[in-house]
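Quick one - inputs below.
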Amino acid sequence: MNRTSAVPESHRRDDTAALASLNTATRGHARTARASDGVAGVPARYVALPCDTAQAAAVMTVAAEYEMTVLARGSGTKLSWGGAPASVDLLIDTSRMDAVIEHNAGDLIVHTQAGLTLTALARRLSPAGQRLAIDPPAPSGSAAQGTVGGVISTAASGPLRLSFGAVRDLLIGVTMVRADGVIAHAGGKVVKNVAGYDLGKLLAGSFGTIGVMTEAIFRLHPYPPAQRWVSVPIPNSRAAHDVTQRVIHSHLAPSALELDRPNSGHPSISVLLEGTHAGVADRSATMRELLGAGAVEQEIRPPWWGRRPWDDRSVALRLTHQIASLQTLIDALDAATRPFGFLADIRGAAGVGILHAVLPADPTTVTTITAALRAAAATWGGDVVILDAPADIRAALDIWGPVNGLALMRRIKDQFDPEHRLAPGRFVGGI
Amino acid sequence: MTNLQPAQGMVVATLAKRLRSAVGDNAVIDDHVRLRTYECDGLTHHRVTPALVVLCESAADIRAVVVICVEAGVPFVARGSGTGLSGGALPHADGVLIVTSRMRGVGEIDIANQRVVVEPGVINLQVSRAAIPHGYYYAPDPSSQQICSIGGNLAENSGGAHCLKYGFTVNHVTGVEIVTPNGDLLRLGGKAPDPTGYDLLGVIVGSEGTLGVATEVTLKLTRLPESVRTLLAAFPGTDEAGAATSAIIGAGVVPAAIEMMDALAIQAAEAAVQCDYPPGAGAVLIVELDGPHAEVEQQFHQVQQFCRDRGAFEIRVAVDDVERALFWKGRKSAFAAVGRISPDYIVQDGVVPRTSLPTVLGRIRELAESSGIRVANVFHAGDGNLHPLVLFDNSVPGESDRAERVSGAILDLCIEYGGSITGEHGVGSDKAKYMPRMFTDDDLDTMQLVRCAFDARGLANPGKIFPTPRLCGEVPGRRQGAHPLVEAGLAEAF
Ligand SMILES: Cc1cc2nc3c(=O)[nH]c(=O)nc-3n(C[C@H](O)[C@H](O)[C@H](O)COP(=O)(O)OP(=O)(O)OC[C@H]3O[C@@H](n4cnc5c(N)ncnc54)[C@H](O)[C@@H]3O)c2cc1C
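Output:
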């Protein structure tokens, strides 16, 4: 299928009709796209802003009728992640779907629309002393963590992952609209529920290629009364491994452990302890001893905590690893970048096994380094993905690398979206 | 093979021969008497004798069996220990039952990575036993943990009393090797997080054996807590015990477990295991806190205060592991124990939002009174997962039907209050008929798209979860022929 032109020739003359249908579906909230609506250098044709699941389903029905390729956009903080879309006939802007449908504090659950930002959600939950323990790193110079829909689609996780799990572990219910406009739910409002297949697992990290997510239900956690960060300088990769091991095998139940290695500056590991005031005071003192010389306690987060180490002019690698292979991975990364005359900035959840490394936006450099890492990845048991890259070089890169089970993934895609109209090209193997 | 037509009998004989030559004579069972020992799982009133049983010893065996089934177009059902309570491992009369009980190898306890790789037939408790000497354990702890298998846990996404704090099986599996219903051996994930691509691992956990047979599982190990504190609180009734639960959770405490038993369940447990709970209790709560010593001590005082404030008339605090085990003994033996007070019973597994527990328990009481059927309640109070035990006597005409109706009405209540028909036991063959009460036809149809991608012919554990199978057929809607390069796998269609 040739998807490089936005709309098949036969449909171009239907422009006005398509836009009129989208406007009917959204009660007047559709328009032709502007240059700024383009995604990763790919121009969009129409933009529709449904306000709820029913409108989103009506929009998707129009999209099916006109054979439009479709991409959903939240606040746009992760649109540059993953593969560039092959085409975007219709951009579904979720910003009007920003409601908290239900916050049941007693049951520690929240039901939201997909366009709600995590920041707005946090504001809603804080009077009840609760939080959604998902903290994807914010872009440099901003506190924006994106929307519920975006964070699920990219399965982005941050420091809290160590103790609260990934997005999929906190997502207990979903509502989605299929490519053919059919609305489907899975899961529900209760944390414990094994009725039927858990489609939330499939949607999490699917980059919009399975369906358009419109609502989500999450499990919440109480906001801890006290928080403290204990940080220690890390002279080398060996020390990073040793400190990580000491912390994860301790009895101190850290909420998070982050490694930060700026190429200019002071590498360190910071451990977050949360709990009661007395408990945290006690545990951080013990943690300080455990971390040894140079360890300090702070009541405020380190300035880099929860932030992306890269910006929109650089390339970010997402490197997963077995916890105990941290040193092997860092050494392999350094060996791969050294011939190019630099050491990569590294930041990530070393106790989980997810690091981000920053490379310059030069296709040859990135390709050579990723190839070297992918060839050796079995030694640390993880994957090497190019998470984020400037639009102009993305096409030149192999974003995802090798994938196990790709044939099965293609069959899933074919079942959910037989015409390949949902975010085509964004995902593994060109899905 | 008396229950088979001659033609079918021949098919089975041929199949048996092929299986024998693939996995060895000793592994294949076709003797009717021996076959009958596999006719049900823990849900004993559903019985089907399988055509053949194969006792597999390796991933290669399982794969060989699946390949032979696929070639012959014969359904296959995986079985671990057969303790499932929803008829998930109920055999298919014309199919092969793949039993993993000979696959009980536990790999190296890899403490540095906090992982262990096990075979699917490994018993849940065996994993913790192997890890405890290293200061670690396997967190999901179904009450059946002394007998149920990790493969069964994976298929059911099993929980346990401690999943309130630690999560379910799905939160503790990081890798799986599986024979897909096409006969492919596929490895997903491992000791590192987040394998690239769709989260197939997450989809497979909890899919009740309908998406393939697990041949190896990588599990996360959890550090043993520094401190564990357990109390048993006796209340006049479930309302007071429920209020105490709400107070605890509302204060931001996340206990490792909060379990409740009502008077009838206590009576049964006393009769069975003499757990010696406080006399006169209308409900007991078992509350367990674990974690760093400094946190646990403070919160444990708080919890005791909440229980007292909400009407607990006796609170016992376990002084050591022996006493803790005693508290748990009554709770963990509760299902079997009702056998002491009733000849027959149905175990339900519905879930309600925790805050509606008091109302729902009240309505269950009304149901019991109006139908004359007794219901004992044992449940995971912290997360609203009820295990009503509907008691009846099969020898009394009409009683089993009435019990079945009460049981269905309880599930309706769960749905009415925004809950689920199953929290941990799975849908299986037992609750498939209730699925349309909880989900729309479109929801069920959409879930089955996954099934079609894995198993277009529906050979893996057919008849489970979904009341009506979806016809997968040809992938609809491809309006243009595929490009030759795409066909050849050299390029992507987009
Ligand atoms: C007294 C008692 C108490 C219980 N308490 C709990 C509890 O607290 N929490 C809870 O969650 N459950 C509980 N259960 C239910 C049951 O023990 C669990 O569902 C358990 O996980 C089943 O394991 P099994 O090995 O017996 O599986 P089986 O009953 O043999 O099979 C269960 C399902 O798993 C599938 N399966 C088995 N092996 C594989 C494999 N290798 N690959 C793919 N699919 C496979 C089967 O096809 C079937 O669908 C209890 C049961 C009893 C009898």
